[in-house]
């Protein structure tokens, strides 16, 4: 797999520029699910050429309230988008990894403000880029404080993801920590050689921090990460179709990936990416990507979070831990937040974005204060809305990341005028 193309699957898009929205405070706070409205939104995504197929599943107030699908999982093979279609969820893997690590926190295996280097010593040698020398090379210095475990959970460690045009990103691509030929331990050793973009805790930058979380799980448990997640999360929740490694007979159930071209047309991609991540031998199990799942499986994960850590009598996390993960962890002084403001009035918890204020204009995604969510590079999305006792999972397979699809599915679920209760 080419490094640039692999990293491109991780990159998330920015929202459209905002416009003033007069009278926002007068908009409605309540909503009613409208099946026809959601059906129409999914159909328009397909008929408008923005997706080959789209599907959504909604759980509200203790019951399934909606399932719908439009278009095709594989347009060329004429396979419809179905409830059991498997998709690459990419960065929607991250919350699963975060749950696995926080289970260990509940067991007293580490403290959130412990230095990362206490458990992974290579990161104790991390250096920060501090300008460029006369020779044109980056000047490196020690960070003002150590990287903490809290930093790797809220993207404030200073790690690169190869997404920006900085000297650190250049080194990231050269060292290639996320190559599938690396083990998690080798990934960590290579990442520790990449200069930090900034001092820990100073900025928010989407990063390889969640892959470091996976490495930390392995270190603390002595168990392969993939095996540990299967044993402690996927199997207990009954997420039978979800995994990094998939049986060969499931390949025909996978949705194809489509890339939007300059002329707006969707071009089907070959299956090499899916085969590399889920079917061919690999050494790296990423904490930040790689899971494939179905609507029903991922909804079981979302319902567990909505249920404050418990699903159908199976406890995965304590309610207080879910509340901690879904609470904004960003100090107000952290004003440089890369693309995060493009997702609306949000902060960031542990592996989730967290809505902190009502939508401020007509272009911002609909939602409720206190909801938490994340998405994936091929434009998948889930969110948990405690205020409305609701969880939603939305699947498409489109790159580059298309935030307009998220805007439209949220408007279809809530109604275009919804702003929700004001919160605390």
Supply the CATH superfamily name of the largest domain.
Answer: DD-peptidase/beta-lactamase superfamily
What is the number of E strands?
Answer: 17
Q: How would you sum up the major sheet?
A: 8 strands, antiparallel
Task: Specify the overall morphology.
Answer: globular
Radius of gyration: 21 Å
Distance between the termini: 47 Å
Assign the CATH architecture of the largest domain.
3-Layer(aba) Sandwich
Question: Care to describe what's here?
Answer:
The chain has 424 residues and is of the alpha+beta class. It folds into two domains: 3-102 and 225-414, DD-peptidase/beta-lactamase superfamily (Beta-lactamase, 3-Layer(aba) Sandwich), CATH 3.40.710; 112-221, Methane Monooxygenase Hydroxylase, Chain G, domain 1 (Up-down Bundle), CATH 1.20.58. Helix content is 28%, strand content 16%. It is built from twelve helices and 17 strands. It has helices at 3-8, 35-47, 93-106, 149-154, 167-175, 184-191, 209-221, 225-234, 272-279, 295-306, 319-325, 403-414; strands at residues 53-60, 63-74, 79-80, 87-88, 128-132, 138-141, 258-260, 266-268, 292-293, 310-311, 314-315, 346-348, 353-355, 372-375, 381-385, 390-395, 398-399. The strands form five sheets. An eight-stranded antiparallel sheet has the order 3-2-1-16-15-14-13-12. A three-stranded mixed sheet has the order 8-7-17, with no helix packed on it. A two-stranded antiparallel ribbon has the order 4-9. Strand 2 (63-74) and strand 3 form a beta hairpin. 49% of the residues are buried.
